[in-house]
Amino acid sequence: PIQKFTVLKDLSGAAEVPPFYAFGFMATYWGWKSQIQVESNISSFVKEGYPLDAFIMDYDWFGTNHSDYRDFGYNPQTMISANYKTPKALIQHYRQAYKVRFGGIRKPVTFQHQQMVVRTPWWLLAWNQLAYEMNFTSASLQDWYALNTAHLISDGVEFFWNDEADFANQFFAYFWWTFSQRKSSSLVSNTRRVWSINRAFTPGLQRNGGVTWSR
Asked: pLDDT-based confidence at 67, cuts 50/70/90?
């Protein structure tokens, strides 16, 4: 078996060394209603002695349904508080007060930029009547996505949990999606370690700092 993995590495590239926190314990939940609820749960983990290194938020950090889906923005109900008026300040608070990193789920679709994606050649991969799936093999879409994602990284979003890019007609969707996120990271820092959790694996994903989760 080790020989097979060696061949795969030689063909698709060596894996990036993950950041140190990636070896720790992470917790996630879907269904947050308020920032107070989020912090209460983080606080409980820490107070009860669980070794929490990072927490991950599902849709709740940028929207709760299709009507308020923010492609590159934040949900003010969960990402702003009375004491911390910006998401950046809140994420810094979590890091300083609880020593935890923040990661957020990402979807390979757009709701706020549908017309742009539809009208720009090669940007639209598929339309399933609910979401417009983006074609990350397009170099121009990669650059646009990277530019719009960079402020999330600057605000303190340490990593992304990439979900639902299991396109039947694009085997390498996760590779090109993480490649775009790597471009985004380089806009913020050339020394920052890129890391992401992805729902499916395709060869080469490891070169972009991607790992695979399963359930």
From this structure: confident
Q: Which is it for the CA torsion 76, 81, 83, 84, positive or negative?
A: negative
> Who contacts 10 (Cβ-Cβ below 8 Å, separation ≥6)?
none
How far does CA 186 lie from the centroid of its chain?
A: 15
Q: What value does the mean pLDDT take over residues 181-208?
A: 95
Between CA 173 and CA 69 the distance in angstroms is 21
User: Alpha carbon of 96 to those of 93, 99, 102, 153: distances in Å?
Assistant: 5, 6, 12, 17
User: In the structure encoding, which two tokens stand for residue 193, read together?
Assistant: 């370690």
Kindly list the distances between the CA atom of residue 130 and the CA atoms of 58, 65, 67, 72, 116, in Å, as whole numbers in the listed order: 18, 11, 11, 18, 16
Cα–Cα distances (Å) from 117 to 62, 93, 134, in that order, read 20, 36, 7
Please state, in angstroms and rounded to a whole number, the distance separating the CA atoms of residues 27 and 88: 20
Distance CA 145, CA 163 (A): 16
Residues making up the chain, counted from first to last? 215
